[in-house]
TrEMBL record:
Stretches of the chain forming a coiled coil according to its record: none
Lineage, uppermost ranks: Bacteria, Pseudomonadati, Pseudomonadota, Gammaproteobacteria, SAR86 cluster
UniProt-recorded name of the protein: ABC transporter substrate-binding protein
Length: 208
């Protein structure tokens, strides 16, 4: 019961209203450095994706995985199903979540590989000390859009991403709602739901 209450508090913190904005160089650097590197690989090597998607995505894992708190994100997506899940199911769901988040983010950015990005210096500070970092994608030939990263500092003093909003699409909420639908369709068989959960295509993501 206490564990469920704790994660509800974190969930509220992640999706809370902004309190103020400040310049926090270490958070700006954490997002900007990794996002620029990520986009550089997309631009320079993105053509390899069609030939061998898994090989290409493996090149991005070393950037992506250390940035994201997959355990927390997974628990938020599982929602009420987390309390009844076995340790094995939780671990498998974490691996599945990690793969689907990377798949969705990579395939989305491949659509915008001709863009350049800039990270706002002003960091929005949320309740319970979570932060929102805004990254702007701009192009001379198409419209501009923003991606917002929700970040917090864990007990080890590391900054971790716990949510991403791409052009107004909240991936945390979208993934949670999608998985809950898959779980219901599988008659709340968690193993079946984990195995059948598929990544969102760009069309599905931006039509939600």
């Amino acid at each position: 019961m206490l564990r469920l209450f704790f994660y509800k508090l974190i969930f509220l913190a992640i999706f809370s209203l902004n309190l103020n904005a400040d310049r926090i160089p270490e958070i700006h650097s954490f997002i900007d450095k990794n996002a620029q590197y990520f986009l550089t690989i997309i631009k320079t090597e993105g053509s390899e994706y069609e030939a061998d998607p898994e090989k290409f995505k493996n090149k991005l894992k070393n950037i992506w995985e250390p940035m994201v708190d997959v355990r927390l994100v997974s628990r938020l997506i599982l929602s009420k199903a987390y309390s009844a899940a076995s340790e094995d199911q939780v671990l498998r769901f974490q691996e599945r979540t990690k793969k689907l988040l990377l798949d969705t983010y990579v395939t989305t950015l491949l659509e915008f590989k001709d863009y350049d990005l800039s990270t706002d210096q002003e960091i929005k500070v949320n309740k319970n000390k979570t932060f929102e970092v805004n990254v702007r994608f701009s192009s001379n030939t198409s419209y501009s859009f923003s991606t917002k990263f929700t970040v917090y500092k864990n007990n080890a003093g590391e900054y971790k991403i716990v949510n991403i909003i791409i052009d107004g699409i909240n991936l945390g909420l979208t993934f949670r709602n999608q998985f809950q639908g898959v779980l219901k369709k599988s008659n709340f068989d968690l193993d079946e739901a984990i195995n059948s959960w598929q990544p969102l295509s760009s069309e599905e993501l931006f039509s939600t």
